[in-house]
Design brief:
Length: 513
């Protein structure tokens, strides 16, 4: 546990030191759970967004984009159920005065039990080697069976209690499991209470006439209220999807874990409209497709798993999370939900306007069902960044800190380094940059010895370093160094574009799906 905490501290420290993420308003001592993306962070975030958009919109003929406003008519949130049901169950510790999400406390406890089962499996795998049959072991080993049954029992009871609004039983479960305050170990808990997460604001020139509004807590409703506009103007045929990226706002009382849970965050969502009765087929398709997208980045298959929801939201008939192994354990990275026809029907009811599709093949009108994929861009950033940050011991016994970002996402694709700041080498370096910058984000670095410059670029996640030396003046060749292997090749300047393109093109990465 201490090791995981140290890893996480290194992630937060590295993000600040190398210009990825800063605490917001830091000169005024910051603002809790609000962060600014710095010069390198904004590039990495943009690249993740574009990688998603390319795969979701550009590569699908029947999916189009949208950029809906953050401010929406307040009835939108009544219709969607957010005004009445967008709550988190919170619990306070009387001794530490700390506040926690009650459901997260229980889920974390259940996860620890799951990890105990995994340790037993890993030990057996190491003991039996290639002869190990994991499925047989899981179904026959008494200790593993006990752990997994206990985990299942806890999760199912939590789901039933939350689904029924039985907060007293949630507290009873916390007490029965003897769950303690993670920071102090105290088990002196208050009752569990619901807390609405929406931020309120005002629209109007004067206080007397101002309209009460909300900052949107999700981007999905902007898609639903524009369903018919997009369908008609784009002549879209069911099945089709509408994708959107954008800011959302939640008044998270217990926002923690760096950018994993923030009050202002960005979502990448797609709502896929299908015929009623075909939603489960589409649901399974998008579960598989979205996992393939994540795996294409090469962060390790073992770092992902599906978690089916025990408690379904009021709009869903099926829901699963793609969970990722963050430095603090497996947590939700993306949700895939079958939302039925709840949203469109609710907006029909509250607006008095029909939001139906005429299906020419069936010759009938109906309200489509919806399958949603929703991934947090900030969580995606954290997953990529934390997994890529490595401390390596080299053959000579020295160490290096390297950010092994997927090259397609790296903020800077190549750094051009003149060996010395004279003899015309900076001029040649600048000429190379002038040529490459039309296609790639490239940097120039002439400060310090070339070895230190390599280390700096390693820590920034730059896939290539291009060194210009005196031989370059003779034969127009340069040394290109690969970040991950530190291998160096002598190549012609004219070959640089092709070498970089081969490693960073979205096409080559997305073809892995």
């Amino acid at each position: 546990m201490a090791k995981q905490e140290d890893i996480f501290k290194n992630v937060v420290s590295h993000a600040k030191e190398y210009g990825f993420i800063f605490p917001s308003s830091e000169v005024y001592d910051g603002l809790s759970a609000v962060y600014d993306y710095a010069q390198n962070g904004v590039e990495l975030k943009k690249n993740i967004r574009e990688y998603w958009w390319k795969s979701m919109v550009q590569m699908n003929e029947n999916i189009v984009g949208l950029d809906a406003a953050i401010l929406m008519h307040p009835t939108t949130w009544k219709a969607s159920g957010h005004v009445d049901a967008f709550n988190d169950p919170l619990i306070d510790n009387k001794d530490s005065k700390k506040r926690y999400r009650a459901d997260v406390l229980v889920e974390d406890f259940a996860e620890k039990i799951h990890q105990k089962a995994q340790k037993e499996i890993e030990k057996a795998k190491a003991r039996f080697g290639d002869a190990f049959n994991e499925q047989e072991f899981v179904t026959t080993n008494a200790r593993v069976i006990e752990y997994l049954a206990k985990e299942k029992e806890i999760r199912e009871r939590l789901g039933r209690s939350l689904g029924a609004g039985d907060l007293a039983d949630v507290k009873a479960l916390i007490e029965e499991l003897e769950i303690a305050d993670p920071e102090t170990g105290s088990k002196n808990w208050t009752e569990v209470k619901q807390f609405n997460l929406m931020f309120g604001t005002k629209l109007g020139a004067s206080a007397e006439n101002a309209m009460d509004l909300y900052l949107r807590p999700e981007t999905a409703q902007g898609i639903f209220v524009n369903f018919l506009n997009v369908q008609k103007s784009g002549r879209m045929k069911v099945p089709f999807g509408i994708a959107q990226t954008g800011k959302a706002f939640r008044n998270e009382i217990v926002a923690r874990q760096f950018i994993f849970r923030m009050r202002e965050f960005e979502q990448m969502e797609m709502q896929f409209f299908v015929r009623p009765g075909e939603e489960m087929k589409s649901y399974e398709y998008w579960k598989e497709t979205r996992l393939k997208w994540h795996l294409s980045l090469g962060l390790g298959k073992e770092n992902y798993r599906f978690h089916d929801h025990e408690k379904l939201a009021h709009y869903a008939n099926a829901a699963a999370d793609i969970e990722f192994n963050f430095p603090f354990g497996f947590k939700e990275l993306e949700g895939i939900h079958s939302r039925t026809d709840f949203d469109l029907k609710a907006h029909e009811e509250y607006s008095g306007r029909k939001l139906q599709y005429f299906d020419p093949e069936l010759n009938e009108n109906y309200v489509p069902y919806v399958v949603e994929t929703s991934v947090g861009l900030d969580r995606m950033f954290l997953a990529v960044f934390a997994t890529s940050l490595k401390e390596e011991t080299l053959e000579d016994g020295s160490t290096r800190t390297v950010l092994k970002l997927p090259a397609v996402l790296a903020p800077t694709k190549a750094a051009v380094l003149p060996l010395v700041k004279k003899d015309g080498l900076p001029e040649v370096s600048r000429k190379i940059i002038e040529d490459l910058k039309w296609d790639f984000n490239v940097a120039y670095d002439e400060k310090d010895a070339v070895g230190r410059r390599y280390r700096r670029q390693d820590a920034l996640g730059t896939p290539f370093c291009i060194t210009v030396d005196h031989q370059t003046l003779e034969d127009e060749t340069v040394t290109i160094r690969h970040r991950d292997t530190m291998k160096q090749d002598r190549v012609k300047i004219t070959e640089l574009r092709g070498i970089i393109e081969n490693e960073v093109s979205m096409k080559n990465w997305l073809m892995k799906m």
